[in-house]
Design brief:
The protein has helices at residues 2-17, 36-52, 68-81, 91-100, 114-117, 140-150, 166-181, 197-207, 217-220, 223-233, 242-248, 257-273, 295-300; strands spanning 25-31, 57-63, 85-89, 106-111, 131-135, 156-162, 185-191, 210-213, 237-239, 251-254, 284-285, 290-293, 310-311. The protein has 314 residues and is α/β, with parallel strands linked by helices. Strands 7-6-8-9-10-12-13 form a 7-stranded mixed sheet, sandwiched between helices. α2 packs parallel to α12.
Length: 314
Amino acid sequence: MKKIVAMLTAMMLLLACVPALAEGYTVGICQFAPHVALDAATQGFKDALNELLPGQVTILDQNALGEFSNVNSIIDTFVGSNVDLIMANATPAVQAAASATNTIPVLGTAVTHYGTALEIEDWTGVVGTNVSGTSDLAPLDQQAAMIKEWFPEAKVVGLLYCSAEANSVFQVETIAEYLKDMGIECKDFSFTDASDITAAAEAACAACDVLYVPTDNTAANNTEAIANAVIPLGKPVIAGEEGICSGCGVATLSISYYELGYITGQMAAKVLTGEANIAEMAIEYAPNVTSKYNADMCAALNITPVEGYVAIGE
């Protein structure tokens, strides 16, 4: 009920402010859920726009609170108000925006694979429509190697992910191939929403030596539930990004989501000013990947961190 009230209040405020917008550019941000990675991407996006177009942009910042129905409502409101650009933070937001408009420029961020998210065959790196943006895809081959590096004796890896998120499915299918090439067996443990994440995590712990959680929005929003399942059973999690790792993982190979959002903001400035045609803009990636570990989780599971990894928070 609190989520519904908060969402209705936010939508009312949004509708109230839209008619007053007259000068400069209006940008609508639809963030799928409130968690560390997506929050950082949104902040980076705002900072870039405000630095590149100071005083020229009115930002309508909306959070769907992890509810798919809220995503559609927010996007529909932006389209109805004819904003100048939509920033869609996370895969569900990009999917909704791409379905809702083919004229308003849409820039995604924190989307792993646009070809998968938008069901584009023969993916080349350019959507070719009113959609472009940035990808949070970290090198999955290196993440697979990291599992072997941290746990060389592991024989079975449990892939824990939300089956409703297309990009999560893409990641686990890809990393499973790398792990199989290393002689490691993989088992799928999917959940549909927060209600069954604990059961899936416990089942994975019972059947596997190590768990892998990709850059999954539902998992990122429920890391405490995963941690509460894996710690008593003594099973480590290798995470696809830092936010998930800080909540329930022991190690990750992660990008900076703030940097990713900032790059998206730079792209937005070019689109708004007419410097770039969004249909011709290739998907961009964060330039840096960092190996990090969660000191608290390593201590809880009595795991010695691998050399060359930086503690999260340092």
